[in-house]
Amino acid sequence: MAEDRNFVEIQDDAEEISLLDILLIIAEGKGLILKTIAAFVVVGLAYALFFTTPQYSATMQMLPLIALNPTPEVVTMSVPANLVSGIVQSDRTYDGVIDKLNLMERDGKTIDRNAARRDLKKAIKVEIGGEGIVTVNAKDESPKMVVDILNTVYSESASA
Q1: Cut 0.70: pTM above it
Q2: C-alpha count within 13 angstroms, C-beta hemisphere, residue 75
Q3: Is 140 helix (H, G, I), strand (E, B) or coil?
Q4: At 120, phi and psi to the nearest 5?
Q5: Cβ(100)–Cβ(113) below 8 Å
Q6: For the residues of 77-135, what is the DSSP string, one character each?
Q7: How many Å apart are CA 37 and CA 28, to the nearest integer?
Q8: Residues with Cβ within 8 Å of residue 104, at least 6 apart in sequence
Q9: Distance between CA atoms of residues 145 and 57, nearest Å
Q10: 152 sits in which H/E element
Q11: What are the backbone dihedrals phi and psi of residue 138, each rounded to the nearest 5 degrees, phi first?
Q12: Contact yes or no for 134/118 (Cβ under 8 A)
């Protein structure tokens, strides 16, 4: 029994395009390419200069006390990192920062304490590192205010 097999032969009559041809096409359109790149650079710079406000950031690290060699003369207390993190993020600490830095009257507007606390919570991020180091990061539009916030957070949490 003979099997009939139909084989289809495909002929490719298309021309091959060489790399040199592609480079010539790109070279002919280089004006358009450069104009497009320049337009996007101008749009990006305009956006960065006129529609965004700079955000400054500062970081503070706190290491909780750990008793390594307790002696009868020296009393050292061990404080876990999550406790320090909780103290830093407490309303008492935030209220102290708000009062000392007068954050309820900012940019010529008076806001209530809850709104000021909410804004401060957005500006401060607290993380606990692998070795128990508490990292506090603050962001604001003013570089002086960022430093003042971190210094006040430290003094308020240390006095807690």
Answers
A1: no
A2: 0
A3: strand
A4: -70, -40
A5: no
A6: ----HHHHHHHHTSHHHHHHHHHHHTTTEETTEE--HHHHHHHHHHHEEEEE-TTS-EE
A7: 16
A8: 98, 110, 111, 112, 113, 116
A9: 10
A10: helix 143-158
A11: -125, 145
A12: no
**pLDDT tens digits for 95-122?**
999 999 988 887 788 888 898 999 999 9
Three-class DSSP category at 13: coil
d(CA 91, CA 4): 87
pLDDT digits (tens, 9 = 90+) for 67-94: 555 666 665 556 677 888 888 889 899 9
Q: What angle do CA 56, 115, 156 make, to 5 degrees?
A: 65
d(CA 113, CA 19): 68
- Residues ≥6 apart with Cβ < 8 Å to 80: 64, 132
